[in-house]
């Protein structure tokens, strides 16, 4: 039995209940993340008396800070084990990927380790975000000119 | 009401990502990249703005909102700077998130010891 056959067999034997449970957990944890974000957003809107638009970056900074701290303490991975996509899809997953990359390569030094490896996992989001937003932004600009 | 809407939308996006993750060979890196592109695409005709109006934080917290913010900043700046605005305004709205992630990520890496 070669590797391919093994993978195929393993896929077939994988219980489907497993996937249902994963999907449910992702929904639950992702939803809770949305509720926490809403709570932080409302908090800043009430305390500082700002609009939702102005409170958004404050909320993002707060959640990113918490996610980085939890990663440093080694707690984020424990949550991620159960939550799956519920932890990597929210913006906190981006913070987690940056922090864990930096932390894991700490032994390689400040420059070659932390400095150059920080974006190893999270960089892809920025790269494709910018490439797609640039292309679509130009398209949108041209459409607006012609309309 | 906002809390229920937030829960439902954020949960749904994560659920879809988990379905893709479980039924394909894609890594979280692939899926987050895909969702960012999706977010910026949904902003092309201001659909994502409508989603934020309806679902509030639920639409702001998934990584799709990152693509939306990049696109939104770029488009807003084209009004003032023309085609150059795409590059000039790109980070206008996402600067906070990226700066915070780099800064706190760096500090955590300096202070804490790797677990694994």
UniProtKB/TrEMBL annotation, chain A:
It comes from the Bacteria. Keywords: Membrane, Transmembrane, Transmembrane helix. The chain crosses the membrane at residues 26-45, 57-76, 125-146. Coiled coil: none annotated. Pfam families: SpoVAC_SpoVAEB. InterPro entries: Spore_V_AC (IPR014203), SpoVA (IPR005562). This is Stage V sporulation protein AC.
From TrEMBL, chain B:
Pfam families: SpoVAC_SpoVAEB (PF03862). It comes from the Bacteria. Keywords: Membrane, Transmembrane, Transmembrane helix. The keyword Disulfide bond does not apply. The chain crosses the membrane at residues 27-45, 57-77, 83-112. InterPro entries: Spore_V_AE, SpoVA. NCBIfam families: spore_V_AE. This is Stage V sporulation protein AE.
């Amino acid at each position: 039995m070669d590797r391919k056959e093994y993978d195929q067999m393993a896929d077939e034997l994988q219980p489907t209940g497993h996937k249902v449970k994963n999907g449910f957990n992702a929904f639950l944890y992702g939803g809770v993340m949305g509720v926490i974000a809403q709570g932080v957003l409302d908090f800043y809107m009430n305390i500082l008396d700002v609009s939702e638009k102005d409170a958004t970056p404050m909320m993002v900074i707060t959640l990113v800070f918490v996610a980085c701290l939890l990663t440093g303490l080694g707690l984020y991975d424990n949550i991620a084990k159960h939550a799956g996509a519920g932890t990597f899809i929210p913006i906190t997953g981006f913070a987690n990927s940056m922090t864990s990359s930096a932390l894991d390569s700490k032994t390689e030094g400040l420059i070659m380790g932390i400095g150059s490896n920080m974006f190893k996992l999270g960089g892809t989001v920025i790269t494709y975000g910018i490439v797609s937003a640039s292309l679509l932004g130009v398209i949108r600009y041209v459409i607006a000119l012609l309309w | 009401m906002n809390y229920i809407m937030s829960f439902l939308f954020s949960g749904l996006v994560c659920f879809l990502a988990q379905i893709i993750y479980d039924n394909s060979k894609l890594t979280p890196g692939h899926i987050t990249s895909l969702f960012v592109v999706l977010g910026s695409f949904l902003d092309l005709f201001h659909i994502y703005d409508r989603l934020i109006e309806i679902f509030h934080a639920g639409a702001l917290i998934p990584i799709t909102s990152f693509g939306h913010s990049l696109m939104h900043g770029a488009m807003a700046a084209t009004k003032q700077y023309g085609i150059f605005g795409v590059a000039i305004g790109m980070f206008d709205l996402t600067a906070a998130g990226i700066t915070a992630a780099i800064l706190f990520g760096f500090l955590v890496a300096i202070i804490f010891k790797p677990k694994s």
